[in-house]
# Entry
Amino acid sequence: MKNIIMASSILLMALVTACVPGMLKQMPPGVALLGPGGSYVLPEQVLPRDPQALALRQHQDAIRSGRERPGCINLPATQCIASLGMTTFVSLAPAWWKDQSLLGDAPADKDGRVKASTNIYMNMPVIIKSNPDIYTVTIQTDDSEYRYVNSVNIHLTWGWLTITIVDSIEELREFHVFQVISPFMTAKCPDLTEGQLYEFIFNDIFRDYTHRGYSKKMCGVSIKWQTDSFVVSDEQT
Amino acid sequence: MLSSVLAGCASPPLPPPPLPPRADAVTSIAPLRQAPTGLQVADAHQFYVTPEAIKPQDAQLSEVRRHEALIRAGQETKACMNVPAARCLASLATVARVRIYSQPEESLFGDRPPDVTGRPDMASRIELGVLTNAASTHGGPVAGMEYGVALNIGGDPGREVQGVVISLFDANIKVIGARTEEEFDQSQIYDIFQIAFARNCPDLDRKKLYEFIYLEVFGNRANENVAKKNYVRGEFCGYRTSLIIDSQKILMTRHQRYLAEKNGESTYLNRIQINIEKSWK
# Structure
């Protein structure tokens, strides 16, 4: 799996840099799948009848029109992906050309059984200090029909070490953590500002040496820094 | 809109920003999370499937289904100790996801066909993985928690449950470290104990159970030498209970052990289990 992530991240890097020569541009918010040759395709183009892709579409419409609150933990995985896709560009990598579903389930075997994929990998390319970087987001779900989300792991591919040693909130601002983490919070704190979140991450997560590795609660979700990535869950430890 | 951005590299027209959630916005348009319930058996490919797919003609399975229907209809109460094993399994399966680890050639409880001399090979213990549903302790959506439950059963035709052994897998730190009612609620331990003690204490008080676990099961160890007090006895709801804490080395190759120690991973398996048995009286 790690190889696949690495390969896809290199493809994305190439795309982000090659798209507009001489100028790096942030991708617009949305959800796409990896297509042939490192291109992006839309879910409805390649998975027109996939129930999970249809559910994603419904959640996107509901969140965009304000009928549904964005969120992830203990909610369906499709709602989580739709919420993340509102603030940032998200690319999923199911092998749809091998008839995998949106969340990566292989087609049913001869007895009609489907093995649920309970780890969903996503890439979010961002530009950090004019360098391309990728947030690798792993959603861990249960195996029920709706794939309710247990926890989310957010890892910054190249800059994960740099982000831990930032000296100020202004420096942290350049890593665009807000657009990746705020979809988890907005259900309970609709008025959450960028400043509040960065203050929380800087003071309570990176600068709290006595409680390193323990999760801190904000807006009803627990966030902790574990080795090299943020882990978002509803655990208490 | 996004497709036009992806196709060429023209100046990207931004999608409209999402509207803020309305006052009547729902948490999710999908149903709220509830951990699934019911029996499951692992097949040869480690898929968890319904037992009917693997043991369609099993008499013990149809007995469990009969009890499940009776419990759902309200004609039978949930119980585990001193009742037939089928009723205990049915009771657990109505509040949690229950995984049975019997082999395909065995019956549901793990009985094997008679040996060459014609003697039956009856299982004396049913090992289960129980994922709790948290329906009794949590109002909102929550993930389930896995416990290991073993039923000690007799050889009589009804296969009466003689003892229940509850192993804390996911919950060990939560239960040992719990001090307040909310912390005990998070461990979801009530879901299992409620059924285990249901015969003698049909309306088991949640707080009373937590006090028993806090004061007697783990509390006795507080001022003692921990190494010598790995077996703690108590009594609750007319049943004898005991706690066993044990840690043993995990079987690993030399290289695996080297890597595990280097990475700071545990090379010991901690076994924390609470046994419920018949009282002496």
About this structure: Residues 32-230 of chain B form one domain.
